[in-house]
Amino acid sequence: MLSLYLCITASAQKTTVWIVRHAEKDTAFVNRQDPDLTATGQQRALDLAAYLQNEAIVKVYSTDTKRTILTAKHVKAPLEIYNPKNLLGLLDLILQNANGKSVLIVGHSNTVLETIEALGGKRPVTLLTDDDYDYIFKIELEASKPAVVSFFHFGQYHRGGTATMK
Predict the structure, then answer these.
(1) Strand, helix or coil at 109?
(2) Would you give the DSSP letter of residue 25?
(3) Sign of torsion, CA 133 70 48 81?
(4) H-helix or E-strand spanning residue 105
(5) Phi, psi of 142, rounded to the nearest 5 degrees
(6) pLDDT digits (tens, 9 = 90+) for 35-50
(7) 103 SS3 class
(8) Do the beta carbons of residue 72 and residue 32 sit within 8 Å?
(9) Using CA atoms, how far apart are residues 152 and 166, in angstroms rounded to an integer?
(10) What is the DSSP string of 61-102?
(11) Are 24 and 41 contacting, i.e. CB atoms less than 8 angstroms apart?
């Protein structure tokens, strides 16, 4: 974590990292290793792209599963696969290739909050459940300042309400 802090403090620019969990996956086949998105998930992927359309995303980082790639595919930026078990490597990529810019990371319920922590932020929610698909997290990294973490909802609210706009 110290090396990440030193990298960030060397920069004079604010980097914005948006993080989401993949959209709703098809669970019809319990043993399916790499499921597609459901129709609701496909709509959420479109909603994600609409939500971020004015954010000037320069790079999208996704794990190598169909559900994360399909979630990210409508965001107008180059996609790069990352290994969620190597978050420091991902952070190095972000700081080297998108310093002072905005990126999107698409992960999983068991990696999103860990990624926020790896960026130096505090978990804004305690846990992501299997039903939590509508959270979008924003982490702002700026020289000599602690990471600023905020969260919003996008698309159809997962508990049946309406989405909270940014």
Answers:
(1) coil
(2) B
(3) positive
(4) strand 102-107
(5) -140, 145
(6) 999 999 999 999 999 9
(7) strand
(8) no
(9) 6
(10) EE-SSHHHHHHHTTSSS-EEE--TT-HHHHHHHHHHHSTTSE
(11) yes
Is 8 in contact with 120 (CB distance < 8 Å)?
A: yes
Pairing of strands 135-141, 148-153: antiparallel
Q: Contact, 84 vs 63, CB < 8 A?
A: yes
User: In angstroms, rounded to a whole number, what is the distance separating the alpha carbons of residues 73 and 63?
Assistant: 12
Q: Which domains does the chain have, with CATH numbers?
A: 2-153 (3.40.50.1240)
Do residues 41 and 20 touch, judged by C-beta distance below 8 A? no
pLDDT digits (tens, 9 = 90+) for 50-104: 999 999 999 999 999 999 999 999 999 999 999 999 999 998 999 888 999 999 9
3-state secondary structure 131-164: CCCCEEEEEEECCCCCCEEEEEECCCCCCCCCCC
Q: Answer yes or no: pTM beyond 0.70.
A: yes
Which is nearest to 4 in space by CA: 105, 148, 143?
A: 143
**Vertex 104 angle, CA 65 and 132, to 5°:** 65
